[in-house]
C-alpha cells in the first residue's frame, strides 16, 4: 500500500524492479516465486539515535521501514537514497 501510494503520487526516480532488487536481491520475479513471502517490517529509533534509512535483508526477504516518518515525500526520498547507496549489490 505504501509503495503503491508513493508510486502514484510522485514522479519516480525508481522502477518497481529497483525496489524488488533492493528488497530481495532479484531484479525480476523468479519463475517459481520466492521461497517465502516478502515481509515489510517497521522499526522505531531510540531517543539517542539519528534517523536511519530504510534497509533490507535480501536473505530473509525483509524490508525495514522507519516508523517515525510522517511525510510520504520524505519517506520516498529516504527509500531512493537507500536504493541509490546500495546500487550494484549482488552484481558483478
What does this molecule look like?
34% of the residues lie in helices and 14% in strands. With 92 residues, it is an alpha+beta fold. It has one domain (2-85): Hect, E3 ligase catalytic fold. Strands 1-3-2 form a 3-stranded mixed beta sheet, with helices on one face. 12% of the residues are buried.
In short:
The chain is an alpha+beta fold. 34% of the residues lie in helices and 14% in strands. The chain has one domain: 2-Layer Sandwich (Hect, E3 ligase catalytic fold), CATH 3.30.2410.
Q: Give helix and strand order, one letter per element, not per position.
A: HHEEEH
* Named CATH topology: Hect, E3 ligase catalytic fold
Report the mean per-residue pLDDT as an integer: 82
The helix tally amounts to 3
Number of strands: 3
Low-confidence runs? none
- Per CATH, the architecture is 2-Layer Sandwich
- What is the name of the CATH superfamily? Hect, E3 ligase catalytic domain
Rg result = 13 Å
Instruction: Report the sheet-strand fraction.
Output: 5-15%
Proportion of residues in helical segments: 25-40%
Pick out its properties.
single chain, alpha+beta, 34% helix, 3-stranded mixed sheet, Hect, E3 ligase catalytic fold, globular, 92 residues
Amino acid at each position: 500500500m505504501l509503495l503503491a501510494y508513493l508510486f502514484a503520487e510522485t514522479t519516480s526516480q525508481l522502477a518497481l524492479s529497483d525496489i524488488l532488487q533492493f528488497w530481495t536481491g532479484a531484479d525480476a520475479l523468479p519463475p517459481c516465486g520466492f521461497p517465502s513471502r516478502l515481509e515489510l517490517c517497521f522499526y522505531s529509533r531510540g531517543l539517542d539515535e539519528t534517523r536511519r534509512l530504510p534497509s533490507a535483508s535480501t536473505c530473509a526477504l525483509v524490508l525495514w521501514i522507519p516508523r517515525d516518518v510522517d511525510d510520504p515525500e520524505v519517506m520516498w526520498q529516504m527509500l531512493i537514497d537507500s536504493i541509490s547507496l546500495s546500487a550494484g549489490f549482488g552484481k558483478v
